[in-house]
Amino acid sequence: MAACLPVSAHAADAYYFFGDSLTAQGPSQTAPVMWSQVLEADTGTPGADFAVGGATTTGYLSQVSSFLNSGDKITSNSVAAIWIGTNNIQIGAAQGQGAQAIVQSSLANIRTGIQEMVNAGIKNFVVLGVFDVSLANSLGPMSAASLAMRSDAAAASQMLNAQLAALAVPGANIKYFDVAAFINQLQMHPQLYGFTQIIPLQPGATCNAACQQTSIFADQIHLSARAQQLLGDYIASGNPIYNGTFYSYGAIFENEVNSTASIQATVPLIRYAVTGFADTIFDKLDQGRGTPGKNATAAGSRSATPWSVFTSGNASYGRLLDTGQPANVADLYAATTNQTAGFQYSIFPEARIGVAFNHTYIAGEYGSTIDSRTNLDAYQTGLYASLGNPSQFVDAIVLGSLDQGNQTRSGSFGVLQSTQRGYSILSAVRGGYLFSFGPVAVGPTIGATFDRTWLDGYQEAGGTMYAMGVDPQASNVLIGTGGFQIRPTSQSDCLVDPFLNVVYEHQFVSSSQAITSYLVALPTQTFQTAPAVADPNMIKVSFGTAIALSQAWRGYVNAFGSVGFGGSYAAGGRVGLMHAF
After folding, report:
1. Which residues, 6+ apart, have CB-to-CB distance to 27 below 8 Å?
2. Nearest CA-CA partner of 123 in 19, 35, 30, 16
3. Helix %, strand %, coil % of the chain (to 5)
4. Does residue 6 carry a pLDDT above 80?
């Protein structure tokens, strides 16, 4: 086919192929049919394959030497077809070489090989650009660890292709084909070509015969038989119509990272809201115990009526998820406010039951690398019971939560939004026994918390090809706590009742399955996202005091904070009032 030649009006009489496993034929070829074989068949032209799997541009120079020493007859109609550079980008990005260094060395070798072949008599060249290597899952999972590598791979891919498009070597007729633009055409219009999967497969996934015809990629980086066929047909056409039509290098990768982070965010925020409500109730109970010998006003003991009402509000800020846990894509920060109100009934001075209502608002935002925000409104109610006195106590609570998340993320494909609905049930119990040491009572505390969280499936809206849908999620968490409490034992009348809690928290069980998501425009293209992992080990501190304001009114203030062993943290404060009537 005359059109496949760079400039010559004569048909090619032989093709010589140079490259890596994206081109190499033979027993180790990566698809049942390779583009080089398709080109030979479409044009009726014999070819000789010198490509070697795993080759970089240094290996490409060895392939050129093998060709020049092979004794093959070179004519003015011979064509050298070169597709090399993908492994340079993979390796260079993994080693942190930087896009500029990767491209400089790669281009220099490609130019040298062409010049050597020109000197030997080859005048016609077909040069294929690399596809957007940031897509390759061979660079690792979508996690914080791979962000820099994939960004470098995207930059290097774009830079190398720009240099190849302008490549000129004295004596060489070069026709360039922009493979990145061609693959993008397949990805943006998959139904036109029969594709149901447009993203490289996850590590460990295999591609059967059906997959070879419906997926663009056969594994983490190699093209399928169908994609190889289409690429070979495109090269054989001799008409690089997609050159210069693609500039969004890294955009799909960026979208996948942003969506992965967004998918991970909501369930931890729901759990954070409901456990924060539980902490509010526990702190309220600690502030109402009083000490022996204090008057009823300061202690919060039973007054003329067993009924009381209370209200409080708090605010906190912290890093909820951190990349110290490998499954987490990025650090997630949360600014939280909540308002609590409720009723309490004292069965007798040492026994109290109550009901509390709470609204929590959380503004969740990732660090600078991820443009995703999740705002959560949690509407919660709970029942609690407490039996004890300042020296010993047992507390139990049961809480339920209805949650609505509003999420916004942006990227190269525009702004995407979603609304999410979730639910949570939490039950917790704790107890303590304090020993008197002069003016101070100190003793151990122990407890357990079980939380189950559900999140309904949802879809993003925004009108782009890469809007995501997410399947329903469910998660169970069992946490054990152990620590100590300190409070005064003074027998004199006092208007304050301070306390200090220090607790070590360990997550014994976390049952969360991988989260399945899909492209709304192509539901057959699915993704598996690891659920976010909160710090399994944490230290929590809470200290505060009740303040007697009058016979019927009592105020309370406290501060709280936590530090996770993996890098998470939070700190905040709370103020409240209680009125007996």
Report:
1. none
2. 16
3. 25, 40, 30
4. no
Q: What is the mean pLDDT of the chain?
A: 90
Query: E strand or H helix at 270, and its extent?
Result: helix 251-287
Cα distances from 531 to residues 25, 304, 327, 515, in angstroms, run 40, 52, 7, 6
What end-to-end distance do the CA atoms of the chain give, in Å?
A: 96
* Residues 74/120, Cβ–Cβ less than 8 Å: yes
| 384: nearest Cα among 283, 303, 296, 258 | 283
Identify whether the C-beta of residue 494 lies closer than 8 Å to the C-beta of residue 294: yes
If you average pLDDT over residues 542-546, what whole number do you get?
Answer: 90
Q: What is the DSSP letter of 286?
A: H
- Return the C-alpha torsion angle 228, 231, 235, 240, nearest 10: -160
For 43, 471, 532, the CA distances from 327, given in Å and listed in that order, are 49, 19, 6
Whether the predicted pLDDT of 201 surpasses 80: yes
Here the tokens at position 553 are 């009114």
**Residue 65 pLDDT class (50, 70, 90 cuts):** very high
Angstrom distances, CA of residue 178 to CA of 123, 129, 452: 21, 5, 50
Helices (H), 85-171: 86-95, 99-120, 144-165
Locate tokens 């180790």: which residue? 28
pLDDT tens sequence across 302-321: 445 789 999 999 999 999 99
Residue 76, C-beta contacts closer than 8 angstroms, at least 6 positions apart? 8, 10, 121, 123
CA 325 to CA 567: how far, in whole Å? Answer: 9
Q: Going along 136-295, which residue ranges are E strands?
A: 173-177
**Single-letter residue type at 148:** A
Using 50, 70 and 90 to split pLDDT, how confident is the model at 289? Answer: confident
Residues with Cβ within 8 Å of 332's Cβ and at least 6 positions away in sequence, in order, are 261, 264, 265, 268, 319, 320, 321, 322, 364, 365, 366, 532
**Among 413, 393, 208, which residue's Cα sits nearest to residue 282?**
393
pLDDT at 457 over 90: yes
